[in-house]
Amino acid sequence: MSLMLQHVRAAARANRLANERLHVAIATLPAEAFHAPRAGFFPSLAKTLNHILVIDRYYLDSLLGQGPLARSGFYAFVPADDLASLRRRQREVDEELIVFCDRLDEAGLVQVVHIDRPDRVDRDLAHRVLAHLAMHQTHHRGQVHAMLSSAGVKPPQLDEFLMVSDAPFRVGDLAAAGWSEQDLLGVP
């Protein structure tokens, strides 16, 4: 298996684990804190997490070859009103992304993806769309991280999922997901 395939598969799993850590931290807050106004591009935990969810769905649908469905799904998106439903829906999308990445082969990495926009159709290679998606997720999870700090919750560490040296810090995360180090990193 190529290094690029190993990377996209590990990154998809790291994405799920990072989302889980954030959701666990947010669950320690009172329910009303989910919608409380906060500093950020999307000014609440709910709005920021729903943005991550809808964009994940949009790009995953595009990667799956469902361009027009991706755009219509984006406009029809109904935000999750509480953390429990958001967490469930995010986990479903995260799992779909993992399955997609696990099914990718070398040819799939360079497959042209059609991204249906309101005024055009963008075309790019799957590996670049996946890289963009990972950057988008990281960008907005960082905003949630800052919001947690301002809410008085110690934000979780979100970057302990890809390096071998971080293995001791992710033991509980892997156990909760039912994964081994091999499952996460895709290496013997």
From TrEMBL:
Keywords, alphabetical: Metal-binding
Q: State the superkingdom.
A: Bacteria
Q: What is this protein called?
A: Damage-inducible protein DinB
Return the Gene3D superfamilies for the record. Answer: dinb family like domain
What's this protein's family per the entry?
Belongs to the DinB family.
**A Gene Ontology molecular-function term?**
metal ion binding
Q: Quote the record's binding site residues for a divalent metal cation.
A: 51, 136, 140
Classification via InterPro entries = DinB, DinB/YfiT-like
